[in-house]
Design a protein that fits this description.
The chain is α+β, with helices and mostly antiparallel strands and about 300 residues long. The chain contains seven helices and eleven strands.
Length: about 300
Amino acid sequence: MFLSRISDDQLVIGAPAKINLFLEVLNRREDGYHNINSLFQAVSLFDRLTVRRVRESEEISLRLSDRSATGSGLDCGPENLICRTFGLMKDRFGLEGGLEVSLDKQIPVAAGLAGGSTDAAACIYAVNELFGVGLNRAAMAALGAELGSDVPFFFSSGQALVTGRGEQIEDVELPLDYWVVLVTPPVTISTAEAYRSLGMSLTNPKNPFNLPRCETVGELVKALSLSANDFEEGPLLSSEGHQKIKKGLLGCGAELARLSGSGPTVFGLFRLPPSEECIGNAGAWHVSTVRPIALPSADTF
């Protein structure tokens, strides 16, 4: 997260998207979740949250800013993860006062980029700062795990091996000198439905992919070519449209093209900046060219 304080009661947070450089679904757990083995990478596509502590109210107010590019249809009511995050922290820590949040939504909704999870993590950061809760990075990550499986990642270095149901985070150090093109078609895919479609049992998990040490982009691409995203084999995401996107990215020079998360976004990994002429003509698809990034330690705030 990237935090800028405006006043004692107001701050702005840049909340990044993430991609799954690989994603294995190992087996279904007794609690209904699935064990995964994945490599998460933060990227330079940001939601921007302007957060103000309100001393004369006990409620949270959430609205989309006029600059939002992707927030169409987003629920800004009590079930939004930002609202649920504030409600949890208010009850847990006995906070007094309310919160106003203006969300400049740039990360596509339900796209496999963790847009909701990063906003929840940003809310944890904001409330921790504005209300002086005093949580360190580990405590914020544990709180985030109560809200969603992807939330703890945003308290990492921005590059992490993620296991369990998503709450077990191991920071890694990977090269950052490449470009990523994100292509999100206008398709909505429920995460729960995508997992159900895999039809996995509680037993016989497969052996997880072991990521070798990667010091260059070439070594990273070689390692990733030995891995996969298991959702690409599922019936919801093996469509002709997704194959067309992958073929198009590879045709533009991507060294790897793969689904992110449970979809529907497909990313292409480029060693050199991709041509705007090649990438730009995507019709109704949402297209962004971004860079992989590292995140500052939450303990430095």
